[in-house]
Amino acid sequence: MEPLYEEYLANHGTIVKPYYWLSFSLDCSNCPYHIRTGEEARVPYTEFYQIFGFPYGPAYPQTKHLTFYELKTSSGSLVQKGHASSCTGNNTHPESMLFEMKGYFDSALHNNNAIRHIILYSNNSPCNEANHCCISKMYNFLITYPDVTLSIYFSQLYHTEAEFPASAWNREALRSLASFWPQVTLSPISGGIWHFLLNSFVSGVSGSTVFQPILTGRALADRHNAYEIKAITGVKPYFTDVLPQTKENQNIKAQAALESYPLNKVFPGQSLQVTSGRQQPNLTPDLRVPVIFVLVPFRDLPPIHVSQNPHKPRNIVRHLNMPQMSFQETKDLGRPPIGMPVERMEITEQLASSKEMDEKKKKKKGKK
């Protein structure tokens, strides 16, 4: 098989031209080496923050695409790690490069049949727009390699909102890709995966920096992604929700942050929902509120409950604020207070009959 790419040995891995005809370009800072393997795949923390939106959450519309990947055996042993970056000069997405027929992944599996699992960590979910056809290439790849599983993690959904012309096409393509379950899983990056990415794919990060807290803005965006991908595909994603949910009062700070933080500082361009004359921000986190995070291993988490019709009104039960009572007071509600005189009255047939006799006597006296 004659591949489309060219691979060169570097100091800490390899650098790859995904298409042998690519050359240095002033229009793209990454050209021509868009695929990097081993330790060459690490990126600076500032680049990771800007593209993936960690730890604050997405800050502005993202034009760059970056995908980290792992190739593993059936036992979970790592064969190779790397990353693929988008080409702004040729308008090509990373997934399109990696899953191209006779491309890098196709060649890797052709030369190493021990690879059984591919894991992608992308800043954007894959699309199927005409210029890229990422999902179509993935689809054909999975049919060619039915024994290979594919796990896709993303930090934000790409062009699935109604305002994008290709949104319906992208959503349908995501549903089609999700139909390969369990061979394919689509999930948001969340929880401990963020710390794994810092440790494995980001340079200049060590020690406590790797396990820095996941801030509320990022955690809310991850929760939103999990909700949306479940609504689009109908398949439960793998997801670790680090925001407390068990008790309502545990989330007071996060809720207050949502109501008080200016929207345009975190999610510029997004609209506000107005309910009953009051503006309700949508995913507007306070970046100063960290989430206390406990590392959770990957596992099958409970399903995310998605409403069948998000526009259907909900039944709201309002509770009155009752005065606080002690246990003894509530226990004694059914008995009278001590010291209050109690008068018991019994109404019997005898009492009724005595009244009737008195009335008859009065009538007889009146006749006389």
TrEMBL record:
Its cofactor is Zn(2+). Residues 348-368 are annotated as: Disordered. Residues 61-177 form the CMP/dCMP-type deaminase domain. Pfam families: NAD1 (PF18778). Signal peptide: none annotated. This is C->U-editing enzyme APOBEC-4. The gene is APOBEC4.
